[in-house]
User: Fold these one by one.
Assistant:
Number 1:
Amino acid sequence: MSADVAAWKARVPRAFGPTPRGRALRWLGAAAFLAWLGALLWWFDASPWRLWNGLDKLGVIVRQMVPPSPGEHWDAILQGLAESVAMAFLGSTLAVLIAFPLGFLGANNVVVNALAHFSIRRVFDLGRGMDQLVWALAFVRAVGLGPLAGVLAIAAAEVAVLAKLFAEAIENADARQTEAVRAVGGRRILAIRFGLLPQVFPVMLAQYLYQIESNTRSASILGVVGAGGIGLQIAERIRVRYWDEVAFIILLILATVAVIDTLSAWVRRRLIGG
Amino acid sequence: MQDATLSLRGLTRRFGETLAVDDVSLEVPAGQMLGIIGRSGAGKSTLLRMVNRLLEPSAGTIRFGGTDVTALRGRALRDWRASCAMVFQQFNLIPRLDVLTNVLVGRLNRRGTLSSLLGLFSEEERAEALAILERFDLLETALMRAGQASGGQQQRVAICRALMQRPRLVLADEPIASLDPRNAQVVMDALRRINREDGLTVLCNLHHLDTARAYCDRIVAMREGRFVFDGPPAALTPERVREVYGVSEEEFHAAPQGSLAVA
């Protein structure tokens, strides 16, 4: 057998692993990656000692969180939570409506011109470059404190993200289905409607539902900068170290997200099946 | 060598109200090349898939030599699957992996899980896979992504993967239904080769009678989940076809509407 192996090794060396050069390059790559990780940790002074100390203080906070308590302002908490959910729903819906056409514009199998495709994609990048929180600060200045600023911040931040995801889903779609619609003599717009949309609709819907869930969670931070929602309640309680009430609110958010998740799973099953 | 007869007794499979396979019994002696014919929906696929237990029988038993296959669980069941290799209509290769690795996948049942997860196939295994590939004229594709090989090549790679399992029998489910006539012939030749040269029992679902007549030692014909014919190819005359299916051979081959659905 071993003579056999040697013969095969001589005939098809690449079937037995990378060339010495390739192997050396892999090791070099891995070493460079590890060195880079190490350097970054060193830069931020992430010593085990500091982490251990931090853990200690974190433990204090966790102890203060138990047992969670609603405190005396039930109504404010519930109102904040309702506001957050509403903000997430409105913001995500707005974002999807705007991102829907943009997604098609950003897909290179719809807008075939390379320059146009490149420019549109860079605009998406610009949009993604600004975080939700920055948008929120801007909109609080523009339309004043409150949930409207939050809705606009969510929408603005998610439009570019969704547009990119939609565009990628469209680009990954199976071209044979559009080909079939063109082959029956359909216009391009109809080829998109019947050959492309049915393929990407499930992705879009799933993204939309996920955004509602995810934005409910992130809406909790928008309140910190005055853009409405439960975040304000959290920030106030952290300031005065009412960690038990903070824990209660966090649990409430978790429960809410779980409910949204269940609902969206049901919607997904009904609309796309499986 | 131990007895290697495959015997099915009263094998039945229900899907809801429909009886896909209805009380079927069959003895396949070791080394036979058996063609199972029938139109789409006759229960051929269901039958084969029950033999390697990808589908559970609703009733009946499958025995191989002294083993009751229907009773196998866990490790023993996986061992059984390794020893009855499956060749699928759509090849079921992993297109993004290279051809060599696809063939090596055939050995997974006999290897340690951890080294397999890390893709650490031994040099002996690699050499064996290369030798199998060479035997079927596929050596030059060994390092190519499987998805880039032609349909006929892919099906032969699938047969190589089956051989890598060191099987006792091979189950081929419509192996040439997705291929052009030329590639179909190459693939059927390969199946007959492993039957003749390696002494493997081959069960092959086909829906072209001529292919079955040309390649098989014995033919069973299925209709609505039951066997309606069992005999040597020469006995399956056009008259006999008309008798068991109620249609002429041309009409048998003319696919009815919607028959592309896998049976």
Note: DSSP finds eleven helices and no strands in chain A.
Number 2:
Amino acid sequence: MDWLLQQSINGLGLGSIYALIALGYTMVYGVLRFINFAHSDILMLGAFAAFYLEPQVSRLLGGPESVLGAILIAALAAGLCALLGILIEFLAYRPLRQRPRLAVLITAIGVSLFIEFTAQHDKVFSAKTQFFPRLLPEHTFQWGQVFFSSTDLLVPAVTALMLGAMWFIVQKTRTGTAMRAVSFNQQAASLMGVNVNRIISFTFGLGSALAAIAGILYAMKAPGIEPLMGVQPGLRAFIAAVLGGIGNLPGAVVGGLVLGILETFLGGIPWLSSYRDGIAFAILILILLFKPAGLLGKATVEKV
Amino acid sequence: MSRSGAKRWLLLGIALAAVASYFAHSPELGLNRYYLGVTIDAGIAIILAVSLNLINGHTGQFSLGHAGFMAVGGYTAAKISLLVSPAGEAAWCFPLALLAGGLLAAVAGLLVGIPSLRLRGDYLAIVTLGFGEIIRVAVQNMDSVGAASGLKGIPKYTTLGWTFGLAAFTIYVITALVNSTYGRGFIAVHDDEVAAESMGIPTTRYKVTAFVIGAFFAGIAGGLYAHHKQFLSPTGFDFLKSIDIVVMVILGGMGRTAGVVAAAVILTLLPESLRAFAEYRMISYSLLIILLMMLRPQGLFAFSRKSGGAR
């Protein structure tokens, strides 16, 4: 019983991070219909931004591990990554907007590799793992034989908050209405006076900010940060987005949580644990075979 | 390239391979071991790129898992060789080991090809990537092939002759196939799947066939690679290896065999000659992908488009 509860808490924490990354994937996919492979690298850059900002912010506020400091660091890192996301879209993806989707997909892989290899260079971040500073005071709670930390509570809370914020932006604001219009039909939206380029930039900025926050949370749980830290969670989050129905915001969160919990439980079974890296992909293949639209997605018919 | 042209290529390739192999491996005229090794690398790259070209170029699918098929073929062939003669005294079994590796890789291709019938573009790319990863994870957990520490002591059977003979054979089979009446179906699937379907072309069967044949040759390349490097490790067959092959196909111009062969050779030799700039190698490599997609999406070596032949 304790084991079950402990694994559920671990799964929920992992799943919430997947969900947060998946939200960003799904938003970009919603408007542009392509997988932004560089999303997982923005996540890494968000963690590194926090890593370099932490000493400055601590000095400014006169001490480390304050709540205000953590919020400030997260906001600055998210802002930086949002700008970077907009820049990547402008430089690499926008010139290819009218090209076949395959060309954009290959470019996205190229951008992702470019960020990874540049970050691994000795003069940038170097390939070695670095210790991530503690941003918040951490408490550990015990309930019977079950242990959980304040971070375990923080991660799902932030994910829920972000889902709420994204839902509000997409459903309740004028920009959100424009985003949905672009997602539905880019050409028609543009004829109705929607500035398509600006909406796409905005979406990229938003998605990248989410990735940065997810990166910081991931780094808080992980032992350290390195330039390839985003690759595995990024792939899992993409799978989570497909699992929930890509383009669907609550679907991304549901997919993330399901994947996180399944991975934790299946990975906890002794004879399966060494196959952990393959579990997520096996789930992906099964879902695409049996329910390609995802758990919450609607099946679409291709019109000719 | 006409069909008789393809046959000429085959004969020329095999003859050249035989002659080159005789000289290169003879003790007195022999090439320096390093150059010999790099040349064999280039030959293996040709097989990989031309076979991926059938899937990604001619048929217009997008596979990111070619390294996985290569791994299946490589490990199978290596294990067979080691079982027959651990000391490496059974060169007669080499072609059989290669064939077995290719066939098992083809089975893997069938397994990947079947789900691919329902998927397109991005989804297919991710699923093939996933299959590649699953194969890698599986190999990592198989103690009989050395698990994570790798399979060591594979006999050195791969020669220049075998490599380029098989490269010529691969080029021949794939060009002849695509140029045949049957093969027009691949190009139809590439050009417009919906139109092809409505013209009565079994698009599903063509896609699966492309995966099976592509995987078969990738498996052969894997076998050659195993008996060339004499060491296999699961990390050698990761996502980046697949990307390497994809870049060869893109650089050469999707579906253009001659371009793809040239790209495979150049992308194998270039890093070797740029060892001094090794730290910037991968950075410039990724920039190359981005710039290529923006400036010359049809491929660097794709010039005029000949009508009526395999492009």
Note: Chain A touches chain B through 41 residues (CB under 8 Å).
